[in-house]
Design goal:
Layout: E1 2-6, H1 11-20, E2 34-39, E3 50-54, H2 60-66, E4 71-76, H3 82-87, H4 89-108, E5 115-121, H5 144-161, E6 166-172, E7 174-175, H6 189-198, E8 203-204, E9 212-216, H7 218-230, E10 241-243, E11 247-250, H8 251-262, E12 270-271, H9 276-282, H10 292-296, H11 305-319
Parallel strand pairs: 1-2, 1-4, 2-3, 4-5, 5-6, 6-10, 7-9, 8-12
Antiparallel strand pairs: 9-11
The structure holds nicotinamide-adenine-dinucleotide (NAD).
């Protein structure tokens, strides 16, 4: 039996693999099963059950070699993230849409339809939005990234309807606080305004302080991706896409948490230089969602933003 994680060297992909290798994930990765990471770079983890394949997800031949009749589960996380997909239209289409379709096609031709968990994003929503996004709101993306994710979501739903895969789509909140360095996501600042000042470094907040974000810690998102993999597809019916739970927080409230938990002076390290390019993407995303359906299915969220910052601080000191 085989599991595949695309984007396995990325921030979430490598954490997901770390969790899959733990004893409490034995139901997903039983003894004797193999775990494959596919990414442009090697997965940083080492384990005899893990094979790190360095390659391009747009390479259909490679996908055909990696996915076989014994592939039970695919986590599809490889993507060109928001700001980069906006900057490089062709690359975003090739990776976020064309390669997703190629992956689905390879899955389709297996004797047994694999379970597939697709990491989508709240960026599928946009336009005139109510204060809180209702469960059934139709996607209306306002960026190429959101459009590519929305198209891929529809493909996952149709391939599932036809029985080619057993898909589930998780629309991820913005993830904060990310360990490591800034990335090419337009929402990268949501981690930077906490992570950098906690390390004594300056940072910049490019959007107005009353901008509301829908946030989740990395830990809760990994729990939710694992839960999505365990869920019986019948419980989703034809509605394969789920808005994952998060918490609705304004950027100003995030900075209040920083001051409370990081100590005096940390807030002062955050500048407020507007960036129209970032604001054009992030300020169009919804900042609050109704998530009763996901909560009923057992998905989880953080209690508040202080808890997210504390979890980040604990992990940072454990990794230091
Ligand atoms: N982090 C967030 O806030 C967030 C929010 C919503 C959705 N998501 C989605 O979750 C997934 C994981 O996000 P992340 O934060 O870990 O991003 P990340 O950039 O750390 O990871 C994405 C990985 O995909 C890989 N990749 C890109 N192009 C590839 C290609 N052609 N072939 C193979 N691998 C390729 C990259 O090398 C990278 O390691 C993505 O699909 C992203 O769109 C993330």
């Amino acid at each position: 039996m085989k599991l595949l994680v695309t984007g396995g060297a990325g921030f979430l992909g490598s954490r997901l693999i770390e969790s899959l290798l733990q004893p409490d994930a034995r139901d997903l990765l039983p003894p004797g099963a193999r775990l494959l990471s596919l990414d442009l770079s090697p997965c940083p983890l080492r384990d005899p059950r893990l094979a790190s394949v360095v390659g391009d997800i747009a390479d259909r031949d490679l996908l055909s070699r990696l996915v076989g009749p014994d592939t039970a589960l695919v986590f599809h996380l490889a993507a060109v993230v928001s700001a980069q997909a906006e900057q490089d239209f062709d690359l975003g289409m090739a990776v976020n849409l064309d390669a997703t379709r190629a992956l689905l096609e390879v899955c389709r031709h297996q004797a047994r339809a694999p379970r597939l968990v697709f990491a989508s994003s709240l960026a599928v929503f946009g336009g005139e939005l109510p204060r809180q996004v209702p469960e059934e709101l139709a996607p209306l993306p306002q960026s190429s990234y959101g459009t590519q994710k929305a198209m891929a979501e529809l493909l996952v739903a149709d391939y599932s309807r036809r029985g080619f895969v057993d898909g589930r789509v998780c629309r991820l909140p913005t993830i904060a606080v990310r360990q490591g360095r800034p990335n090419a996501a337009a929402s990268s600042f949501a981690s930077g305004i906490i992570r950098e000042p906690l390390a004594g470094l300056p940072s910049n907040c490019p959007v107005p302080l009353d901008t509301r974000l829908w946030l989740s810690s990395p830990g809760k998102v990994i729990d939710n991706l694992l839960l999505a993999a365990r869920l019986d597809g019948v419980r989703l019916g034809p509605r394969r896409a789920l808005n994952l739970p998060g918490i609705s927080v304004s950027v100003g409230q995030m900075l209040d948490s920083l001051e409370r938990l990081g100590g005096p002076g940390t807030r002062g390290l955050v500048g407020e230089e507007p960036d129209a390019r970032v604001a054009a993407i992030v300020c169009g995303w919804p900042g609050d969602f109704e998530v009763e359906r996901a909560m009923r299915l057992g998905f989880v969220r953080d209690s508040d933003f202080d808890a997210i910052v504390r979890a980040y601080q604990n992990e940072a000191s454990a990794r230091a």
